[in-house]
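Holo prediction. Input below; ligand is coenzyme A.
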Amino acid sequence: MFHSEIIGSGMYVPPGIITNHDLSKMMETSHDWIVQRSGIEERRWVTPDMVTTDLALHACEEAIKNAGIDKQEIDCLLFATISPDHDFPGSGCFLQPKLGLTGIPAIDVRQQCSGFVYAMSMADAFIKSGQYKTILIVGAEVHSKGLDKTTRGRDTAVLFGDGAGAIVMRRKEVKDPAKDSFIYSTHLFAEGQGAKDLWLEAPGMALGAERMNHEMIDAGKHYAYMNGKRVFTNAIRRMCECTLLALETNKLKLEDIDLFLFHQANMRINQMVAQELKIPEDKVFNTIQKYGNTTAATIPIGMAEAVKAGKLKKGSLVASAAFGSGFTWASSIFRW
Ligand SMILES: CC(C)(COP(=O)(O)OP(=O)(O)OC[C@H]1O[C@@H](n2cnc3c(N)ncnc32)[C@H](O)[C@@H]1OP(=O)(O)O)[C@@H](O)C(=O)NCCC(=O)NCCS
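Structure of the complex:
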């Protein structure tokens, strides 16, 4: 049977740094509140002329270069995002020509903060089935254009940032399962009962005769609503559960894992997951201080940054887990 291996990673964040102090000039908030509640010190925002696929393009180019492949070898493109350039077609279709590719399938994955791990799982299944051989996966978000930057929206506006991360996954013939680099497992979950605990209501076909009207805009229904406490407690519970399931499936112990790459929604969530699972702090790689929550881009940004920081090396055994809107959650174990 075929397996799949991650052969290159890349990332891109826009240069515009927005500090907590910058935010406190736009809304009633403070650096101390944001750091205490979330661990975030700054995030990146795009300029108005930039869109999600622009960020994705840079991340993909770096991933392709690091993978050492000719981009024409890519036979499938998976794009995880909740901030598409347009409602339709999917962002993959806008990215594909920017990459100079044509003909290959371009599939959007709509699983929010779990989107990248979902996309990795899909790529792994495509490769194992023999359908595709070299898959480019990108997670990219432009949140800054969709945040309510007034005091009304401060509970969410301070948490999210813009960015992109990408990997190339390729077919691998595994000779030594204990040593070779490949994706050991992926586990995917959803619980739609929590859909409205973190959602964007409008525009929507469910909203009567119109997708959107002035009243909806006045009420701020075109901004994300979040039940922060419910998301917080579910995130801890589900990330612990799916990490333990991944370990159990692969008959691994926590000590066998070299690096934990968790989704970055809130530093306190990751600290509590680490505490609950008894993971030493230096094995958890965090980027939230610098970038905030970049949703589908978070995990691949973490991969690319961990490589650059020398924390993720050839042969490292990695456990990754994410939780987000849906509710959706997912985990993966892979050898880099
Ligand atoms: C959003 C979150 C940081 C809020 O932290 P919290 O400890 O639950 O804070 P609360 O919601 O109880 O709010 C406490 C107070 O701070 C206020 N507050 C909210 N946002 C604020 C901000 N940015 N600045 C200052 N005060 C703020 C609230 O209005 C509330 O005031 P009140 O007590 O007068 O009513 C936290 O719930 C969280 O991280 N949730 C999960 C978020 C997440 O993971 N989202 C993405 C999932 S992928």
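The pocket of coenzyme A is lined by residues 29, 33, 37-38, 113, 154-155, 158-159, 198, 226, 228-229, 231-232, 235, 265-266, 269, 293, 324 (CB under 6 Å). That is the main takeaway for now.
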